[in-house]
Amino acid sequence: MLHLNEGHSAFAILEEIRRVMEYDRIPFHRAQRRVSQYTVFTTHTPVAAGHDRFSADLIEEHLGIFREKMGLSHDDFMALGRVNPQDRSEPFCMTVLALKNSRRANGVSAIHGTVSRLMWNSLWPTRPEAEVPIGHITNGVHILSWLAPQQYQLFETHLGQDWPTRMAHPDMWVKVAEIDDGELWETHQNLNMRLIRFVRRRLQLQAERLGHRETTNQIDQILDPDVLTIGCARRFATYKRGDLILSQPERLAKLIEHANRPIQIIFAGKAHPRDDDGKRLLQRIAQFSYTNAYRRRVVFVENYDYNVARHLVQGVDVWLNTPRRPLEACGTSGQKVLLNGGLNLSVLDGWWNEAYDGENGFAIGHGGMHNDPDVQYQRDAEYLYDTLENEVIPLYYERDKDGIPHYWIRRMKHAIQSLGWRFSADRMVRDYANRFYLPAASATSAETA
Ligand SMILES: *Cc1c(COP(=O)(O)O)cnc(C)c1O
Fold it and tell me: How far is the CA of 234 from the centre of ligand 1 (A)?
């Protein structure tokens, strides 16, 4: 079994073919057929420019010796990575190599499957787009790595000690309805407080490093456990539009400074060292968080890593995700908040496009797209503020006499019940095993038999 994750790994196919040729003493084309029978390929990139392509010269320089060992001419070798083998001007594409030599191929969400079929239709020119042989298996996260211990215990009490072994079964999650609202909310609030303490500690260290003088007392004024907490952490690739929520400063200021129903935002993230646009985006966000007016309500946590991510996904009320549709192949950070009780507020892209049912979180817009990215940005910004103002904030602050937001909690429970089992790595691995690995394995044994 050879499972290739993204085109970068596709040369593994060639080495495997070479190995089979040598061991089984069979010619290239037979070895190629055999290897394809047990190779599956997962693509992750919905942007054409994001797929590695190499010039014929470069390929010859680095793989010429290898090519000769396989007994292929330069043109035959290049054909392995060309959409049109006859086109001598076409570079060698790693994704083409992988798609041409795999038994199964998939994108990482339903919408990404659709985008990939369109993108690679030219490899199967006689087929309509819908019949391009690229399916999808939606990514999931490793639940036990992301779930807060307090939340784990809550599930243990209400779902049974063996709940982790049954997490891929939707039936098990029905019982979440029986958890007392007060108990669930108290656990959530404790996690939120834990996040706030973590962020304050990190901000103190950041302030010391930058030489800002901030007293412990001032630091303790930053963030408030009774305020709606929005988390927004990502790689600052431009398509993720991490600054969408800052795009209308006056409207945002009203939300942050509201007397009874304010919001607070915790940003974290890194940009790629060579992505200057991404760096500028990050800079804008960091500077916004340093302005005095918002110091207590908008914070930027440096050095985003798994530890920062873990605290964030376990403690936020809302996870904000604003990619430009359809460029988020799947996105997984929002899946990490599900079982911790956070609600997603996201553009209908990647996994959220198939997860959102109207009651298990919040949608930004209706899945619209526009050729002009600026127009799409403006529209999505409008939708984002509208959803915050009309749905998210009112629901969060609607409390009973004990201060418990029952309608909000109903959504938390519904998100856990309807989504926790679907977007776990447990379900994902089962899908790969049942649909990709096992059929491929039996096909191989049939061929050798
Ligand atoms: C989950 C995670 C990511 C990926 O999140 P996306 O939503 O796919 O962007 C990136 N970095 C860290 C540290 C994570 O934990």
Answer: 6
Please report how the helices 406-419 and 181-210 are oriented relative to each other, as an axis angle in degrees rounded to 10. Answer: 90
Which of 44, 322, 332, 349 is the pocket-test mutation for ligand 1 (most atoms within 8 Å of CB)? Answer: 332
Atom of ligand 1 minimally distant from the CA of 234:
9
Please calculate the CA angle 293-295-299 and round it to the nearest 5 degrees.
Answer: 135
Q: Pick the atom of ligand 1 nearest to 240's CA.
A: 9
Q: Taking the model in full, what pTM does it have?
A: 0.94
Residue 125 CA to ligand 1 centre (angstroms): 36
pLDDT of residue 425: 96
Instruction: State the span(s) of the chain assigned CATH 3.40.50.2000.
Output: 2-139+428-448, 143-423
| CATH code 3.40.120.10 for 2-139+428-448 | no
Average of pLDDT values for 141-148? 97
CA distances in angstroms from 70 to 60, 103, 410, listed in the order given: 13, 21, 62
For residue 185, is pLDDT > 60? Answer: yes
Q: For domain 143-423, give the fold.
A: Rossmann fold (3.40.50)
